[in-house]
Amino acid sequence: ETGVTQTPRHLVMGMTNKKSLKCEQHLGHNAMYWYKQSAKKPLELMFVYSLEERVENNSVPSRFSPECPNSSHLFLHLHTLQPEDSALYLCASSQDGFSYNSPLHFGNGTRLTVT
Amino acid sequence: AQKITQTQPGMFVQEKEAVTLDCTYDTSDQSYGLFWYKQPSSGEMIFLIYQGSYDEQNATEGRYSLNFQKARKSANLVISASQLGDSAMYFCAMSLYNAGGTSYGKLTFGQGTILTVHP
């Protein structure tokens, strides 16, 4: 496998459910990210991990909980979400989190619908 | 704060012709990077091209070139010889080199431009 892989591709959950999004990168990168893409809004950075340490938490509500067990895997744990959390959640990785010229490589995203 | 503006919500181009997608940015920083990404209907964001603020030459990658005009703060994407597979959403994005020498993937994205290539 190559690139950045996200599962599941689609997820429908109720407001009281608990679910997790998974991301895996096969690029040997050291930094991983969660972005949220809502309709008619620019992409929003949620979390950044560099060498498995969280280095950025962009004022994200606590109902979103990231986990990075190693440099290749990233999870986003979801609980008691709201309908406005419905969006495309994109995972990305980069060679490192320290260079402004290091492009991000994105996965296909998970389309989340909260009912 | 930095900002990216893409003024074209949608663009149409005939197959095999060239098209320019506009991007202007606003930052007071001197060191920054500019990126273009393509997002097909599948959802994946595909990195296309990068231009650094100190790069003197315009970046090129195959059929993609970046028309970088620093004084005007514009970074337009030019796609030559358009193909049907180029139909997608295109995003311009910027990263900053902050005082600590890190950007932590803080890409600021524009609203995007939907490109449709007609046969």
Structure description:
The complex is a heterodimer of chains A (115) and B (119). With 115 residues, chain A is mainly β. Chain A has strands at residues 4-7, 10-13, 18-25, 31-37, 44-50, 53-57, 64-70, 73-79, 87-94, 105-106, 110-114. In chain A, strands 2, 4, 5, 6, 9, 10 and 11 form a seven-stranded mixed beta sheet that branches. A four-stranded antiparallel beta sheet of chain A has the order 1-3-8-7, with no helix packed on it. Chain A is globular, with a radius of gyration of 13 Å. In chain A, 38% of the residues are buried. In chain B, a hairpin with a 4-residue loop joins strand 8 and strand 9 (74-79). Chain B has strands spanning 3-5, 10-14, 19-21, 24-26, 32-39, 46-52, 60-61, 64-69, 74-79, 88-96, 108-109, 113-118. Helices cover 0% and strands 50% of the residues of chain B. The mean pLDDT of chain B is 91. Chain B is an all-beta fold.
